[in-house]
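hey can u check if this looks right to u? its 326 residues, i copy pasted from the old doc so theres a chance i mangled smth
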Amino acid sequence: MTELLRWGIIGPGRIAEKFAKDLTVVPDAKLYAVASQSGSRQLADSFRVPSFYDNYQALAADPAVAAIYIATPHNSHYQNARLCLEAGKPVMVEKPLTVNAAQAEELVSLAQAKGVFLMEALWTRFLPAFRRVRGWLEAEEIGEVLMMRSSFNARMAFDAGGRHYDPDLAGGSLLDLGIYSLAVSQSVMQANPTSIQAQAVVGSTGVDECLAVNLQYASGAISQFSTMFRGHSANGMEVFGTRGKISIESWFFKAESAHLERYGRQPERFRGKFRRGGFEYQIEEAGRRIRAGEIESPLMSHTDSLANLRVMDEIRRQIGVRYPFE
């Protein structure tokens, strides 16, 4: 029988609640501890968690906690993850892993030096639909990839002090929404872009509220994506190849289905309905790697996270978005 993996959560907000709900369908894991510096016990009480802490250090030091999920605002990811790694605790950090590549490089070096698991919780990469998309691409079902395009636009009410718009909290549409398009693009292309072109509408608080990016790869393939806080769209994804197309019609980042079209052949649709809310797949992957004594997952490797952040650093450089604490 597989030993139960006891999880702790740092930062009990909305995303942490989703993690806690989806953890309930993972049979060999349970939520054991929650830490909140604000003193809020709502998440711990809702899930009848055995241990509650009013500081992160105490949770990281708890010998009963086998792994930690970090769901604090972007600007805190680096320091929270560093605390856990220094305590020898495997850690899964909500996307983005950190605010910039320099911070991520330090965390990866620390994880490697200590032999402790570290993974960015970018749940899209672990979903059954995206595993199938990856399989179609590896089988060259659509031939050579020529172009990809995607969008993730969602209307966020303006709040200058809220996490979406506050530069002190590493706000902006790129780190919050655009990262999904970028991470999927990198997975589809299996390479880093050789050319990056970005344009943005930077709002009154100094963060990107609307963003459009063109990436080109050494193969010649192009990836285009857009993201914004000021309006909705279909939020779909398409990958065009020399022999066909792969598409996800709407809300690609949480897809349960994907569509394959091959010229001259019958189309194919994959359906992979979630067992819960979709976080369960990254939780299970982390658990497998932690039990195996590994320090990363090939589905969202350290190399992948670093590459994504280096591209985002360049995008922010081009659009003139720099956070006060950098």
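The chain is about 30% helix and 25% strand.
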